[in-house]
Here is the input.
Amino acid sequence: SALVASVPSMFLSSLSNVILPTASFYKALGKDERRMSSISFRVTSLLTLLIIMLSVPLGEIIITHFFPDYASGIPAFTLLLMASVLPFPISSLTNFIVAFKRDLRPFLVLTVLNASTVLITSFLLIPRIGIIGGAISQVIVAIVSSLFTVFYALRTKVFFPTFKEYVILSIIPLVGVYEVFIDPRWLDLILFLTLILIFKFLGIIERDYVELIKGFLPQKLAFVYKVLRVLSK
Here is the structure.
């Protein structure tokens, strides 16, 4: 379950490798960091949410059909997927803190905070409920880390959310709750299409954003540009 859950995060990690050099480049050009962080947040949020909605049903099908002995671990798989993938748009803001503020002190605090949270929650949960306790521990760590990152990004004025960012910040936890507690497969397609319509109707991804990003995407991620162009307004 953990192996299957790690696949989407590997794709997002390759995308993350593009963000910091891009942020540093635009810092050198004197660009507005808040606009750049907003573009990154919107784009990574769309990709993350689409990946989550595809990965959960596909992962469940793969585990059920190819690894039936591990079917009992599907709840843990879902939680691990939420913990490793869903916080990605927020964690990407750390690239802008590094590029624009050149301040690594918050990451020391965040490391200590995450380590303490893992230690405490694992000690309390794993002996009682086993592997699902470990998965819940990872979810708690992801929540704590995300809250800290948003707080620090707001405090340093690297991230200045508008109505569209607030919409996304509302959708992210709702999708997590849906995937963990509800998630009938027949509803996944409806939710997937609804999400696309929300992003398209509200114009969350603007066309000039997509053209800006195109120049920094490596060849292996060229399909991301095509997806974003279709969903941009």
Remarks:
- Residues 2-101+160-231 form one domain.
- The chain has a mean pLDDT of 84.
- The radius of gyration is 18 Å.
- The longest helix spans residues 33-66.
